[in-house]
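User: Here's a chain of 265 residues. Predict its fold as tokens.
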Amino acid sequence: MLVHSKAGRWAAWALFALLFIPLFALPLLVVLAASFATNWSGAFPSGPTAEHYASAVRGESLQALTTSLVTAVTASLLALATGTWAALAAARLKKRGKRTLDALFMLPVAVPSVVVGLAVLVAFSRPPLLLNGTSSIVILAHTILVTAFAYQSVSAAIVRLDPAYAQAAASLGARPSYVLWRVELPLLLPSLNAAAGLCFALSMGELSATMMLYPPDWMPLPVRVFTATDRGSLFSGSAIAVVLMATTLLVLLAVSRIRTKASYR
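Assistant: Prediction complete.
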């Protein structure tokens, strides 16, 4: 820690607990408690049951979880490929060109996601590229929303990348494509894994744009949570939300292990 005195460290931990517990821990604990309850008329939930979780991992909820996983993985891979390519290209541009490219990639983050959803809906609801009513339009919207984070993560890693490795490979006769695939990308692998995890987590929780675009046969899990709570099924919606959080955390844990091994290499 940056605080070296014992009293300062205790004060820092106390401040952290004061902010973390009411702002982050308690809301999550409330959702967890509600997922095991059948009613909540007093200060604490009552009627403990696991039936909500039994419903959350089968039928339409299981299908929605699969839809979210497919959407998030596909959008993350597309965003990672696009963001990495753009970041590598931007690193070779002059300052003005790089600023322009930065602004273009950050534009979807600067506006509300519901605006991005509306823009995608209007743009792809007529020929020649008709995607409205298909799963592709949801994946496209998620890709647009998370590409900025992949671009920024890889751009920051490229700035810290030591050019001596690429220069040494080029001086030995390596072609630019060889330098890219065998030198630069392996060095960027920890940042690529981190960017993929961030994109996946953001896609798994995306709701606003998805609500405008999803077809009936492609309902991601956040929409399932919203519809359940909107109908008054608070406890079953809480169980679905816990399943969503647990699945996201498990995937992020797997990605972090890959990132740790990549950093070691």
